[in-house]
Design a protein that fits this description.
This protein is an alpha+beta fold and 456 residues long. 16% of the residues lie in helices and 39% in strands. The chain is elongated, with a radius of gyration of 37 Å.
Amino acid sequence: MKHKLPQEGSQLGLTGRLRYFLFGLVFLCLAQVTLAQSNQITGVVKDSGGEPLPGVNVLIKGTTTGTVTDLDGRYSLSAPTDATLVFSFVGFTTQEIPVNGRSQIDLVLADDTSNLDEFIVVGYGLQRKSDLTGSISSVKSEELNRLPVSDVTQALQGRVSGVQITSNSGAPGAGATVRIRGVGTLNNSDPLFVVDGMLLDNIDFLNPNDVESMEVLKDASATAIYGSRGANGVIIVTTKQGKFDTKTSINVDAYTGVQQVARKIDLVNARQFAELANELEQNVGNQPIYNVNDFGVGTDWQNEIFRSAPVNNLTIGASGGNSNTSYNLSVNYFDQKGVVKESEFERLTIRLNNQYKLSDAVTFGHNFSFIYFNQQNEPGVVGNAYRAYPIFAPRNADGTYTNTAPVGNPAAQFEYNSNNRSHNYRGVGNFFMDVKFLKDFTFRSNLGLDLAFADG
């Protein structure tokens, strides 16, 4: 009997076709499962103030599939039920939200202060740094608070190109002279200061901890916004504000330090002074007037007028808000003793920045500061300390002040002339109202107030 053996090729072909069939069947089943686990997700994205955010990127994590929100902040996207959606927008914190089988996901994006340096405050609003055509420099609060200064303009020193900051004197509380790109006129060359939209001539009343940012407009574009008052440049100051729908946060900032004269002038002592005085008399044909053996080191009058001077600063602030109100309250006390005795500067600053939502379209607010200054200037003893003879002691044996003619006794000046004290009160602020209309337009009305009183 003959048996016909099966052909090897036909057997392999049948097995291969069976494998392809099973593989395709499994693939179709997996595809059906995947399609069954995808659903349509919709939602609205808003900012912390409750306003819809258009242009927010919504991506499925790990893929390039996504969409963007429309003008009303709405989006629609098909995604697997176990996917994670990534919401991102310039100036806001990126958030990753698991779908967890939901079909609607609404989100409030929080402000990302770390990305605020991408925007610059100009005279007519906010502008991207990359879109600027004028010469504008920006300094944020983190940089301003690195130095313990009494005047916020001094914190700009060395931080902005083309801006020269010069202290008026070494006296405590002394202001600074600001020059933007040199001196442009024989008259007043001071720049214009704009604090929260209010035009001012100086900002010595500001507590550096209250400043959110400072922008310096240096070229001719400043005159296009502020006219001739901006011809010497403009410094725009934005103070810190509270945020709607945020919990109250308490901040305390304090520092203390000591100021000293870095290097004193090398003067002759009493014996050296007597020798030089005798040589002077002998050169004109007179007899010596001092016995040099009667003198030793004598008095260094610099030690009589200079001292180690403490400086203290304390700021306590609170900020937060609910759905209709935001607030930022700060109280600052600054105390600086001068390195020259009988000189000091004290400043108490209370600032309150509030906003109130009267409706979705109308917001009312105010930025107001009350400042108290207490300043005492030294009685002009520095010059006399350098001219007074070292052969004299500050006091006689009976405790009375020594006659140091022909120069006044610096020690006596502290007691009899230290009455140059002044008390100043100042209130600076503005009230404003914003009205939104036609979706993309905002009308603002602003009323400023600057009152100052002096006593002493």
